Structure formats: structure tokens, C-alpha cells
Amino acid sequence: IRKVLRQIARDMEGALQQGYSSSADDFFTYMLVLRSKGTHSLTVEDIVDNAIVLLAAGYETSSVLITFLIRCLANDPDILGKITEEQEEIARSKGPNEPLTWDDVSRMKYTWKVALEILRTISPIFGSFRTAIKDIEYRGYHIPKGWQVFTAQRITHLDGNFFNDPVKFDPTRFDNH
After folding, report:
1. Transmembrane ranges (predicted)?
2. Measured distance CA(170)–CA(118) in Å, rounded
């Protein structure tokens, strides 16, 4: 897979240099554009790694999130209506068969809030490991630099100390983000 993705990266980079492609085409090309502009220190291997994550890790988590999103939208016609209105407004600004661009995606403000809320309420990943970057004391425990610490995002996202009415599906909680 890595060999094929490296070749795709080289081919796409060539297409970019010859003007046959743009960053609006897809995420892979967008990363190559960032790399070519020098705005990010991405190597081809970094781009290949990101592509593998999108291909492999995103499959089951995406299907779980989409399933719960459909359930939430079916149970809340107001939220569904707002998303539909936003999407129809973008569709009206496009020509027939004109594809979406990254600019179009950036206009999906309410849709993005709904996506953030679905990620908060139905986190597809219970938690993750992080490496302590320095020695710390936490509630009487010493955690040395370099130790692996498990963070439980699912528990944090449903904690009333951080979110008002944490089990309620409410995209407006992200109005100021």
C-alpha cells in the first residue's frame, strides 16, 4: 500500500507542477500543495501516513458516526432542517454538476457544529494514549516524563463539569468555536 501511495503522491505532485491539478481536488492533493508551498514541513512519508490513516482507521469509525448522525437527525427535525437549508444554499450557488470545493466545505458552519457535537456525544474512540512531556504530579500521583497516560475522551465529553446538559445533542454549544 505504501509503495502505491508513494507513486500516487509522485504522480499528483507532477500534475500539480504542470497545472493539471489544484488543492481543491482532494485532501491528498491539498497536503501536497501545503508541502510544495513550504507552509508545512510534510514529507511524502507524512502524506502517505495520513492517507493510510484515512483509509484504514476511518472506515469503522466513520460508519459508526454516520449511523448515529442519521439517528440524531431523524429524531430532531429542527437540526435536520438547518443542515438541509445550509446545504441547499451551497447547492444553489453551484452550477449543474459542479463539484464541491474546500471553500464550499468551509461555508458549512452549522453542519460543522453538528459534526463536532456528534463527535462529542458518540465518540467512536473511547480514549487514546499520550506521552507525558514532563514530570507531573496529579492528585498525589507522580507521572514521570515519557510515561504513557491514557486519556478517556468519552468520559470527558459527557462530564457535566465541562458541558452543560452533557447528554443533550446540542450543536449550538459550538457557536463560539
Report:
1. none
2. 9
Residue 40 has pLDDT above 70, yes or no: no
**46 falls within a domain:** yes
Listed residue (111, 124, 126) closest to 57, CA to CA: 124
Task: State which of 124, 141, 159 marks the end of a domain.
Answer: 124
Closest CA to 47 of 61, 33, 62: 33
User: Domain of 140?
Assistant: 125-170
Domain assignment present for residue 177? The answer is: no
Query: Does an H or E element contain 148, and which?
Result: strand 148-151
Distance CA 17, CA 154 (A): 43
Question: CB 70: neighbour CB atoms within 10 A?
Answer: 11
d(CA 117, CA 61): 15
Tracing cell 430532531 back to the chain, one arrives at: 76
What's the average model confidence in pLDDT over 90-97? 94
114: nearest Cα among 79, 77, 76: 79
Exposed/middle/buried for residue 173 (C-beta within 10 Å: 0-12, 13-18, 19+): middle
Same domain, 118 and 129: no
Query: Whole-model pTM?
Result: 0.64
**One domain, residues 33 and 11:** yes
pLDDT at 118 (0 to 100): 94
